[in-house]
Specification:
Layout lengths: L9 H4 L40 H32 L4 H25 L7 H9 L1 H6 L1 H14 L4 H21 L18
Helix pairs in contact: 2-3, 2-6, 3-6
Protein name: Integral membrane protein
Keywords: Membrane, Transmembrane, Transmembrane helix
Organism: Streptomyces gossypii
Amino acid sequence: MSDTQRPDGPEETGEQGLPGLPGLPGEEGPDADRPLPEPIRFFGTTWVDHTGGYALRRIGLGLGSLLLAVVGAYALRLAYEGVAIAELGDWARLLMILAFAICSSIGFSRTLTGFKRRPETEEDAARERSMRSFLLVGFVGVLLAYAVRTLIEAPGEKLHRTEHEAALKSHERRRTARTGNPAKRKRKPKRKPRN
């Protein structure tokens, strides 16, 4: 292809567009300012219309997170055996088991609820940030929650879909409110003031 020739379609340029979603960058027309869906990690915007290997990604990420959870549990077992070999006492082993069990359960529940809602206030966001150490220690629970969520949908898909649909409805209301020629509108008669 010479320098003067330009490719005609997205297949030749390597650009990926979403079918049925007007308003993508570079498009022109009445829906050019339509709100775009927010990408989800590992899924991009394939969650919108479940194309682009969406099902394979869900299966792969679910199995991958399960595999990582198994490897993590094995690493925790090795750590437990190290504490047992060091003969620190029963209290140390019990404390270690309790810490990982509690942190894993907190990580599991926080991760599942995190896919359903965003922090509403700055306090909620600060509370989520303060739980990061628990989530780090309870990484097995976080990975299991991710695997469970991929059985249903892409993690966070429902939240993103709800927000995107609300943005589309808002956009549609704004767009229909300003369509038409304002000069052709009928004027409402002025009301007479009551005395």
